[in-house]
Structure formats: C-alpha cells, structure tokens
Amino acid sequence: MFRYAVRRLLFAVPTLLVISFIIFALLDLAPSDPTAQLPLTIPEEVREMIKESLGLGQPFHIRYLKWLEQFLINEPLNLMEQSWGIEIGDSENRMRVRSWSTRAPVVDLIAARLPQTLIVVGMSYIVAIMIAVPIGVISAYKQYSIFDQIGTFISMLGFSVPTFFTGTVMIVIFSVVLGWFPSIYDTTHVVNDFDSFVVQFKQMIMPVMVLGLFSAAQLSRFMRSSMLDNLNQEYVRTARAKGMSEPVVVLIHVLRNSLIPVVTVIALGLPSTFAGAIITEQIFRINGVGALLIGAIEGADMPTVQTVTFIFAVLIVVFNLIADLLYGMLDPRIRYE
C-alpha cells in the first residue's frame, strides 16, 4: 500500500501542475481590472503604474511561473519557518502570493479564516454521515416500507433544495419567529467556559445542519443503493444458513461491503462541501474561506481567487487518494501490489 500511495502522489504532481495552469490561465484571461474599484479621478497613467507594480506588465508565462514558485516553494518554506523554526534561504526577501486588495499574503489570509470554515464543514460532514448511514441501512433493509418512502422523499427534497433557500428558511423560522438561534455567526466569539460553549453551540446549529442535511440527502441514497446490491448476494444467504444472527449479517457483513462504493462518495464529497460552504457562509455571515473568496471575486483580486481555487483542487486530489487507500481496508480482495 505504501508503494501504491507513493506512486499516486508522484502521479498527482503533474496532475496538479496541469490544473494550476488551467486555473491561472482562465482567471488571468478573465476581463478583470484591479484598478476598477479606485476613484475615477485617478489619472490613467497612475492606473498603469499600479498595474505594473502588481506585475501585470510581465508576459503570461513569467507571471504563471512566479505564482507557481511562490505558492509551491516559498509558502511551504514560510510554513516550515513559522511552525518549526527551520529557516532556509532569505526569508525577509522571499516573494509571496499577495492579495491585490490588502497586499497581505494570501496564505496568511486563508490561514486566519480556515478554522471557522473547518469547524462548520467538519461538524456538518460528521452530522451528515451519522444521519445518512443509519437511514440508508434501514431503508434498504425495509425496502418499500413507510420509513423507506419517507426517507426517499426527504432525501430527494433535501438534495433538490439549494442551501441558500434552506438557510434562509431556517433563519426565518428559528431566528425570527422562534428566536432560538442567532442568525449571524459571531466569528470573534471565544469559548472559555460552559456558558460561552453553549453560545458557540447554538450559533453553529443552523449552518451545520444546512450543510449536513444537504450532504446527508445524497449519502443516504448511495448507502441505500449499495445495501440493496449486497443484501441479495450469495454470501448473505450463506451467512444466514450458518445460523448467524440478523444484526451480525446486516451490520457486519453487508454493511462493510456496502461501504466500499460509499467511501468514494464520502471522500470526494468533502471538497464539494467546502465549495457549498461558500454560499452558507454568506447566509450566516461566517467570516471563513468562502467569504474571502466571494470578496476576492467582487474586488477582482485574482491572486486570492487563484490560490483558493487551487487549494480546492488539491483537496479533491488528496481525498481521491484517501478513498483509494480506504478501499484496501474495507475490501481484503483489493491488493495494491
């Protein structure tokens, strides 16, 4: 498995390079002007000087290679220096990917907002798995029952309704009408005692449930379909003929084999949840990576947009590798040699 993981990592390098080039080229060719937000009284020659200072006067391939060097070499070196104190080269004069709007390093901006996004996305995905797996198992085992029909209806409804609509409805019901939860997520809140933990828990409920229910709707359908495929297999009849109890047959033999295709959906669905969190963060005013990306798009801050988009691509490649490695743990028939 180790050699397989190494081979996949080596193959991921050219894949990410191609992805980075496509992302950089598409966003660089987009009709955006970093000086569009400046007052109209600024002379044109001053605008051109500003563009030159941002490196826009250089050829495309030079700008791409510089961006690649800053993101793949300089930023990891800065991370090593900040985390472990390992200094390689001249850190003071090292070029970094900087935001056009704030002139701050983009990676620092992402690192400052990433914890909020990770808390919401991570908790929502845990909730989604805890909801989807039991519902999928019970719906398959009791196929065409009332529980299965209700679960199918709710899953289709949850998967069809966009998160911005679900979030808005939750705000109207639970914040405006009932007044149970706050409609705005306070990212400056610090948890230092039980009362502050309760406040944090209450403000997390709605954004976590919006993302969690949307992901659970998809996962439960895959779980049900996979369970139905395995319940009619020969090994299930053999296990029952040997006198194994029904919970052992369903929850150990059938469930383990049914999780094999679902692992792909779970692993590849997490980066998609990050993308879906962009809209949810706007609804609940969460100052996370999604809000950073939306603000960068509105302000034509291309370095920030390119960096955040490329990070999403890296997440997809990484979780694809994790899904492949988990196959070997769930299915002993799979060998990586």
Walk me through what this model shows.
75% of the residues lie in helices and 0% in strands. It has 337 residues and is an all-alpha fold. It has a domain at 108-330: MetI-like fold (Orthogonal Bundle), CATH 1.10.3720. Helix 6 (163-177) packs across helix 7 (194-231) and helix 9 runs antiparallel to helix 11. The chain starts with a helix and ends in a 7-residue tail after the last helix.
The profile of the biggest β sheet is: none
- Structural class assignment: mainly alpha
Q: Report the span from N to C terminus.
A: 7 Å
Q: Name the CATH architecture of the domain at 108-330.
A: Orthogonal Bundle
Broad CATH class of the domain at 108-330: Mainly Alpha
Radius of gyration: 24 Å
Q: CATH H level of the domain at 108-330: which superfamily?
A: MetI-like
Oligomer classification: single chain
Low-confidence stretches: none
The tally of strands reads 0
How much strand content do the residues show?
A: under 5%
Helix proportion range: over 70%
Question: What overall form do the CA principal axes indicate?
Answer: globular
CATH topology-level name of the domain at 108-330: MetI-like fold
Helix-strand topology string = HHHHHHHHHHH
Mean pLDDT: 78
